[in-house]
Design goal:
Length: 465
């Protein structure tokens, strides 16, 4: 009986083996996320909570030292829950890719019947030929989906690095401005108190007193706004780092580094962006995927549900039956599915074209912003701040020589506040413009990632009877 069964199975087994040999090549994918992390000098962590001890030790070591933009980036990559969730999704994509490369399971049916001649046992083996025929195409589609998944996580990695550095810069400048305004407020409050006393004894006019009180009130208002900005920026930084403000203290530097003397020359930024932007690569991978799906839809319209079946009797080895089945396109010819696939392909094609134009625009805009921000920051650093310091030194000499009074000295402080806080803002804007230029060169995760349910081939779904 076993030899009879093997004989009946031989055509089906041969088809399965030939398809397996034809469908197991070209299954490797490049880990784009790991490559991107290496270029940015950050280490990808383990996502399994049981294997997180090494990452937690590294986070504690980085937090024990004064923070920098690089250390902030490393902590964010090691500990941000959203990014860890994105890393976990890579395993889902790999599993889906593996699933797409598996051969369809054969069907088996055992039938026991009784007739006048006695009992009869029939074995029935079936195979979904439709899925077998389009196995390589479905694998190619799954590979494009896995590539898009890797590009999406790479985009999330770059987005996290840039956002964490932006939050770091905002927090440092807010802290610096708050400390400066605290010092100014102490001096201004003392001058306001002095103005009140002089007004009470008649040595100060009501107008002069009102001016001092107004300036003191304005400084207190600026201080309150700056304190609010400081709290918000620190909370945003804690959020991106995946840390708790109540459990972790951040050692931020007192101020940002000085503006560089010169900017490095950068050429062909638009071409660089078009070549390396991850969102553009993702859009092209989606376009290739939709092209494959369109090809499958066109080629599968009249062979949907194709299946093969081999049956035979155990008692009568000479009895053998081979059957082929196919879906009759009487009501659904597949024209609507093909039209939908064509429309989705055209939509993706124009979306890719629009993204190319957007990439060029964003790079030009970000580069112009960086150049103007640099000029403004250098103007503050090289001219306005030194001049304000020189004026303050001269006024101190005049005050020590009793040529001016304390209120004239305070008036000079009022003028300096705007210059000093403006210099802090200009310095912050320059460093933020550099990060925005990097974002323009790498792209942002703005495109929604297509899910497996959305992209799964409808022909393959309809084939399994």
């Amino acid at each position: 009986m076993s030899m009879n069964i093997i004989t009946k199975l031989s055509p089906l087994a041969a088809a399965v083996l030939l398809s397996a040999c034809a469908g197991t090549s070209g299954f490797n994918t490049v880990d784009l996320v790991q490559q991107q992390a290496a270029e940015q000098q950050v280490q990808l962590p383990q996502t399994d909570p049981a294997l997180r001890s090494e990452a937690e030790q590294e986070i504690d070591r980085l937090l024990a030292e004064p923070l920098t933009q690089q250390s902030i980036s490393r902590i964010a990559v090691l500990n941000n829950p959203d990014f860890l969730a994105a890393l976990s999704s890579l395993a889902i994509g790999k599993a889906q890719l593996t699933q797409a490369g598996l051969l369809p399971n054969p069907g088996f049916r055992l039938t026991r019947s009784r007739s006048e001649e006695g009992y009869n046992t029939e074995l029935d083996f079936s195979l979904n030929l439709f899925n077998l025929i389009f196995l390589n195409k479905n694998k190619a589609i799954a590979q494009q989906q896995a590539q898009q998944q890797q590009q999406q996580v790479s985009l999330q990695l770059m987005d996290l690095l840039i956002k964490s550095r932006i939050a770091f810069i905002e927090a440092v400048v807010a802290q610096q401005r708050f400390s400066y305004l605290q010092t100014v407020q102490e001096a201004i409050d003392a001058s306001a108190e002095l103005a009140n006393r002089m007004y009470q004894v008649g040595n100060y006019s009501e107008l002069q007193q009102a001016r001092q009180l107004k300036f003191a009130a304005e400084i207190r208002l600026q201080l309150a706004k700056t304190q609010q900005q400081q709290q918000q920026s620190r909370e945003q930084l804690y959020l991106l780092l995946g840390l708790s403000a109540s459990e972790t203290a951040l050692q931020l530097p007192a101020f940002l580094p000085a503006i560089p003397a010169t900017l490095p020359l950068q050429h062909n930024l638009e071409q660089q962006a078009l070549a390396q932007r991850l969102d553009l690569q993702q859009a092209k991978a989606k376009l290739a995927q939709l092209e494959l799906q369109l090809e499958v839809e066109k080629n599968s319209r009249f062979v949907r549900g194709l299946s093969a079946e081999i049956a035979g009797s155990v008692q009568h080895s000479a009895e053998r039956e081979l059957a082929l089945g196919v879906e009759l396109p009487l009501f659904d010819s597949g024209a609507a599915r093909t039209s939908k696939a064509e429309a989705e392909y055209l939509q993706a094609r124009w979306q890719t074209k629009a993204l190319e134009q957007k990439a060029s625009f964003e790079v030009r805009q970000a580069y112009a912003l960086q150049q103007s921000s640099y000029q403004i920051a250098r103007h503050y650093q090289e001219q306005l701040v030194p001049l304000a310091q020189k004026i303050n030194q001269q006024n101190m000499l005049r005050y020590n020589g009793m040529l001016i009074g304390v209120f004239e000295l305070i008036a000079d402080t009022q003028a300096q506040v705007e210059t000093v806080t403006g210099q802090m803002t200009a310095q912050r804007d320059f460093y933020l413009s550099e990060l925005r230029l990097q974002q323009a060169l790498w792209g942002s995760p703005s495109l929604p990632l297509t899910t497996e349910t959305d992209t799964k081939n409808s022909a393959a779904n309809a084939a399994g009877h």
